[in-house]
Write a structure and sequence with these properties.
The protein is an alpha/beta fold. It has a single domain, classed as Inosine-uridine Nucleoside N-ribohydrolase, Chain A (Alpha-Beta Complex). It contains 12 helices and 12 strands. It binds alpha-D-ribofuranose (RIB) and calcium ion. The site of calcium ion has 7 residues, from loops.
Length: 327
């Protein structure tokens, strides 16, 4: 497939590679974005979440180095919410193991594009390709919201946003919250940012906890991880390393393996046909208190996004692994 036919994306992510107590899904999403022939990865922007964004940039660089793709720019993004605060659970985590490199040696950032901030990188890159760039946002939405505030023309110029975040309670057990009973991490980390994005008028696709959970089969099983021969593909060693880091200290008790939240957002950007969707009106609860960061459906309201409501998780996970580990 020629470069011009591939969907141009920026991956806005909180990747942690080999850092104990972090999710494996962001680096796997990055590997998928590099390997899926239907996507053209224009750059990686980092955001606080699994680890601080400067450390996340080094983690992204580790994946790019493993893939032989150090030509892809990495831009460091926001280290706090738009209001300048860092949520207390992250302050605590960053003071410990999640604030420093773990068991994988991370490169220093050498790519000169990293001197550009993530917000400016998003603005410049979208402006260079008006209407063509999809932002795949798989962390807090602070970089994106700030870019929209700084350059309001982006509301027209961003081709689309596919984001992993939120939960509408469509799935009983897992579909509401994971950081609080009502809120999902990426939205709760910066509800104000998500509110700006949700009201931006940009074409939005939501990949939420309603489908990124074990009931849809969107699980990379421990047995499948252990079965990967590190010599079988270019990305096999780092693939195994990030997954084993997760298995050694899982963030959530799924019993067996990793939920592939963020890779599903990349898979949907590559081919919306992998899932089913409903057009819905969704807002973010900004009230301080137990509902903060909850994503709420407004029945009868004007739809502002397409929400992923169904996926054959087992098939998608199989295809994702195949793509990442292709020769
Ligand atoms: O709630 C799931 C999100 O938070 C994902 O983006 C994952 O990376 C986790 O940290
Ligand atoms: Ca993430």
């Amino acid at each position: 497939m020629g470069a011009s036919h591939r969907r141009k994306i920026i991956l806005d992510t909180d990747p942690a590679v080999g850092i104990p107590g972090t999710d494996a899904d962001d680096p796997l999403a990055l590997m998928l974005a590099l390997q899926d022939p239907r996507l053209e990865l224009l750059g990686v922007t980092t955001i606080f979440g699994n680890c601080p964004p400067a450390l996340g940039a080094r983690c992204a660089a580790a994946v790019l180095r493993a893939a032989g793709r150090e030509d892809v720019p990495v831009a460091i993004g926001m280290g706090t919410r738009m209001n300048g605060e860092l949520p207390q659970p992250l302050k605590d985590a960053y003071a410990g193991a999640r604030g420093r490199p773990g068991r994988v040696q991370l490169p220093e950032i050498v790519n000169p594009r990293t001197i550009l901030s993530a917000v400016d990188f998003i603005i410049e890159t979208v402006s260079a390709h008006p209407g063509e760039v999809t932002i795949v946002a798989i962390g807090a939405q602070t970089n994106l919201a700030l870019a929209l505030e700084k350059a309001p023309r982006l509301r027209k110029d961003i081709g689309a946003v596919v984001f992993m975040g939120g939960g509408l309670g469509l799935e009983q057990r897992y579909g509401k919250g994971n950081i609080t009973p009502l809120a999902e991490c990426n939205i709760w980390f910066d509800p104000q940012a998500a509110d700006i994005v949700f009201r931006s008028g940009v074409e939005l696709t939501m990949v939420s906890l309603d489908v990124t959970n074990p009931t849809t089969g969107l699980m990379l099983r421990e047995s499948a991880i252990r079965a990967v021969d590190p010599k079988s593909a270019l990305l096999a060693p780092i693939f195994r390393e990030v997954c084993m880091t997760y298995l050694d200290a899982p963030m959530f008790d799924w019993g067996d393996g990793c939920v592939l939240y963020d890779p599903l957002a990349v898979a949907v950007a590559a081919d919306p046909g992998v899932a089913s969707f409903q057009d819905l009106s969704v807002s973010v609860n900004l009230e301080p208190g137990p509902g903060l960061g909850q994503t709420v459906m407004r029945p009868g309201g004007k739809a502002n996004m397409r929400v992923c409501v169904g996926v054959d998780g087992e098939k998608v996970v199989g295809d994702i692994v195949k793509t990442i580990l292709a020769a």
